Amino acid sequence: MEFKLTTLGTASALPNPKRYSSAHVINIRGHLFLIDCGEGCQVQMCRHGISPVKIEGILISHIHGDHMFGIFGLISTMTLLGRTAPLTIVAPESFRPILNFYNEHFAEGMKFVISYLPLSNKEPATVLSYRSFYIESFPLVHKIETYGYIFREKVPASNIRKKKIEKHNLSLAEIAQLKKGCDVLREDGELLEAKNFTYTPYEPRSFAYCSDTMPFPELTEWIKGVDLLYHEATFGDDKEAKAIEFFHSTARQAAVDARKAKVGKLVLGHYSTRYPDLHVLLSQAREEFSETFLSDDGLTFDIPLKKHSKD
Ligand SMILES: [Zn+2]
Ligand SMILES: [Zn+2]
Predict the structure, then answer these.
(1) β partners of residue 192
(2) Does the pTM exceed 0.90?
(3) What is the mean pLDDT of each run of 10 residues along the chain (311 residues)?
(4) 45 and 165 share a domain?
(5) CB-based contacts of 289, cutoff 8 Å, min separation 6
């Protein structure tokens, strides 16, 4: 049961010969979503073996070019490849005229439906829900309307502890009731408590994506306890004033939020071209949160499954 982030583009706004613009692929249990789609995204997808046809949804954080200039080319390629499966696009309401423009001028031959979900929520809200996971969006604080996303696995159904079946000679009806979380009172007065007979097979995992944003108080509460956090880190300590001016974060600020939110692991990205040696950013961040890592174009970060004991 895969759950992993691949960072296809880790540059910020200016062109960079070594990095592509913001684009990330989440593979959650075999379902593929693109988060942001900067220029060159589809080239990076080719390079890393990610088929445009397999992308189920594209989540755009905001309509700055470095986060979405790749979407027209990608949708066009999906059309050329004969895609028929519907494509979900989640983006701020401000994306609507951009999509309309595409549909007006470039959609000839498109055999799939684009289902567009416009965002305007002021607090975290579920935007998509599937059998075993769901996706939330939440507002960030940037120069223009911007959203972050959280992918969360749903709590799995309880399993019965097999050893208990024989020991207590459980009937099928009793097993069904216990698995639903209901206690069973037997005719002889014995109480079988569901919590002692069942277990959840694994701990639900989560991933949060914080695109361009300056720090703000609610954020740590909204991303609390996620296993993996991607957070922009455009600047280092030396440019904290610039970070405020442009509504961005420093690597240290990203790490402070990661620590306060008690996340499992922090991945930094969206680097300014002024830092040829990213270890400056990494060391500043690690002073605040040791489980910080640098993303790079094409790197993958797994969220391992934490299984619970059957016994
Ligand atoms: Zn950006
Ligand atoms: Zn931006």
Answers:
(1) 184
(2) yes
(3) 96 90 98 97 96 97 97 97 97 97 95 97 97 98 98 94 90 92 92 92 97 97 98 97 96 98 98 95 98 98 91 72
(4) no
(5) 255, 256, 258, 259, 266
Are residues 75 and 131 both part of a single domain? yes
**What separation in Å is there between the alpha carbon of 299 and the centre of ligand 2?**
22
Q: Output the domain CATH number for residue 148.
A: 3.60.15.10
Would you say the C-alpha torsion 53, 40, 133, 119 has a positive or negative sign? negative
Last residue of a domain, one of 198, 223, 248: 198
Q: Of 36, 66, 257, 297, which is the active-site residue?
A: 66
288 CA → ligand 1 middle, Å: 23
- Please tell me whether residues 52 and 147 are part of one structural domain: yes
| 66 among known catalytic residues | yes
In terms of residue numbers, what domain contains 83?
A: 3-156+207-302
Which residues is 125 bridged to in the sheet?
137
Residue 147 Cα, ligand 2 centroid: separation in angstroms?
11
